Amino acid sequence: MDDPAKRGMIRQAMSAPYLGREEEIELALRWKEKHDQEALNRIALAHMRLVIAMAGRFRHFGLPASDLIQEGHVGLLEAAARFDPERQVRFSTYAAWWIRASMQDFILRNWSIVRGGTSSAQKALFFNLRRLRARLAQERREASRQDIYIEVADALGVAVADVAAMDARLSASDTSLDAPLAGEDGQSERMDFLVSDAPPPDEVAGKTIDDERRARWLGKALSTLNARELKIIRERRLSEEGATLEALGETLGISKERVRQIESRAIEKLRTALTRIDPDMMRHAA
Fold it and tell me: Domain 4-110 belongs to what topology?
């Protein structure tokens, strides 16, 4: 590493003493019960070897080891802050998941201009495709590429098309947007021919202002509801899942028909309140 501070961090980590199980539990309890920052730091420092070792497993992605270690350190601190000694699990076992996840997220963000997917299935495909493809190619030398794609898809639970697309991404090199293109003037670059689908800045700014204004209006209108009306509106209209009338009825101890009546009344109250806040709002929203 070129950074002296990072080199020093690695030397410090490699010389840090190992923690026995009892000492590890004691430090974890000090952090959990007393928020003892020194205890948290000692747990993290004692396990930096794990971060450094795991960074070595991802070296073939071509990213700086110092950056991988730094990201792994973030995951290590997150694990230390969340660790519960009552689970009877060694901290290294618990922390390994957080460290690996932090490094993998960093790799997915920075490995290539063409980003891979961020779902769990796409992550599994990204980090396991090369290994599985090489193993299958060695075991079945006569198999076609399509046959290998099918086996990889079955093994990872993804679509065959996703395997082919990811293989193309991993096999292709990135192309600079500043690369010159042949043309009459000889001055054109690839970037000159890219068309942005994003809205212009003035529309983005206008939408942001409108969204903030509507959020304030909605907050004021919601304040006119009583506690039961507010709960029903939040659960039914403002959550992604959208609770059913039956589920809310069971929670509140009333019938689903009563929930529907309260919801209708609350919507009418909101409509009235919003109109009072800004009579033109309904036309603007439409």
Answer: Four Helix Bundle (Hemerythrin (Met), subunit A) (1.20.120)
